């Protein structure tokens, strides 16, 4: 039998209403309030061993302290899954459920599940991190919302495969992964069906919603290039011959840093490109077409730039995911900053 | 233009004294088949191995798939490649349905090659686990590219086409078990009822990004990087006008098998005259230079507009950089008030949290997803490996890396390296959803 621990606020924990909203977090053995319903729903697969009660006001005003105390209390107990709420449309309760679920999931590595109304302001903040089930807007929906959560908890604990967020009933967490269409309708049929609907002005649902784009603000321009330290970073896959660090030719997750001090240019045979997305012959013949060290050295000699950083940084861009590129860019930037680099020439292909 | 494809549904394949087909059994005279293969001096070693659905067999590195077929009338298969130039899309073609010839390296895989598991966890990833596969396992003297990550694989791929035709010829003079008919009037000669239906084009963007010859998809034997968007009759595509290229990561690849069995085109032909007026296939390309991307996108739009298209389905054979060509075409067509549906695969990362395409557009309102190239697969060992398992880890496979192959024969890899997995031509029910 698996074990669950349940978080509720002061009202559902039968401490009191708004007047008791400053109730400090405490952990109790067993269940009370909606925990009784939850227990019945989870029986016999999961046992709710403990209940945590915390005032919504206390949590809102002392989030760090509240989380610390609750995590500390939880350390004494073994549990397989954590559940909180439902918070319905209650903003403070929603934030508390979201925050405590995220903290517990991070610390203990167990799935953390809650439920709240789609307009609860906590939804956009926490939906990507934890399972937030779509629930009703008032406590009148308790008897509808809790069974959905309980069912998911049981199936998860039994190791059953999850369906899509939409099918399960929780807010999509921004995780797009493969599945097999049920029933098995091939993509050709789905495409023709979608086109016919679109042509007839009927409603249809795209399989890939276009996400909103997060922009990156550009840095300030260089005031005096002749005083600046310049580094070359490339996603064109230029590496020392033999690719000593085994950087991948597509879907890269690694980057390399290579010393070019004393080199006037990159010589054929000493460097190669491992980029899997274009014809490599030109770059292998003259690696400077991707990492323009030869021209940069000229600029240096002519005094156009202050100096050239000792290292180049390289990875491969083709098929590399946005997430990995962001991480690698961040790591490379750390080194650039440490080395006092003022500006980067970033080459792709 | 009328094309009849006469089907012979293969139930099993065996080796025997003669190459013939009877009652669902394809029998192959291996010696005779191989002697045809060896006619190309570039082939230094060749063997044939059968792999059936459900068997504990892992096939890697797979370079191409071709359906065993023969032209009974009106032309030759794959003109401009294994046969001289001629036209396609009319007359009778016979096909050994349910079977497939795979070109497999005996050694030396590459970025563009793929893996097929005939059973187990990995089988459902690709529809090629469902065909009776005749694996042509071979080595060539193309040593110039032996240690190149990107391989043209020319000898093997062309041998695959020739072997497929050799087998297809076994049913040339027989009566098919059933016949698929693809029949449509020339565009301006269609009757009033059909003209009233919404007009639709299918835009096929094939892999064409390599500069050197020998890697890109071929249209009537012509390198598709050198073409401007052009109109093809659907019958031509279904009859073998396009031969697959050799550099795109394998799950995105549209093999020659799937070009001739393009499920989207078949579905559109079925709807033709009923719900749509299917105008034809616009073959376009995926380019490297921005000017070329724009040129092809704008000419797709001009062609679609001139034809009077109301709607379009766009298929991208690729991911990453080609997403920009895909999105450009969608935007151009939507701007011309042509309703679009795009179908392609995504690259959302192993954790699924990266944006699906390199380029996005709010005008891409209707999209069908065929898979995630980054999907991590942990696959159990198979009893038999056809080909070279180490090629997955050693030769720069797009879905493999150093460490992909474990000592016990189990593997960990990305869907990117599964042969034809995402089937952007529409042939599979694998998709991507949000969790």
UniProtKB/TrEMBL annotation, chain A:
Q: What class of enzyme is it?
A: oxidoreductase
State whether keyword Oxidoreductase applies: yes
Q: Which InterPro entries match?
A: Various_sel_PB
Tree of life domain: Bacteria
Pfam families referenced in this protein's UniProt entry, alphabetically: GRDB
Cite the entry's keywords alphabetically.
Oxidoreductase, Selenocysteine
Q: Which GO terms describe its molecular function?
A: glycine reductase activity
Q: What is its EC number?
A: 1.21.4.2
Indicate what this protein is called per its UniProt record: Glycine reductase
- Species for this entry: Texcoconibacillus texcoconensis
Classification from the root reads:
Bacteria, Bacillati, Bacillota, Bacilli, Bacillales
From TrEMBL, chain B:
Determine the domain of life of the protein's source: Bacteria
Any GO MF annotation of the entry: glycine reductase activity
The record's EC number reads 1.21.4.2
Q: Which UniProt keywords apply?
A: Oxidoreductase
InterPro entries associated with the record = Gly_reductase_pB_sua/b (IPR015417)
What Pfam families does its record include? Gly_reductase
Q: In its UniProt entry, what is this protein called?
A: Glycine reductase
- What is the native source organism of this protein? Texcoconibacillus texcoconensis
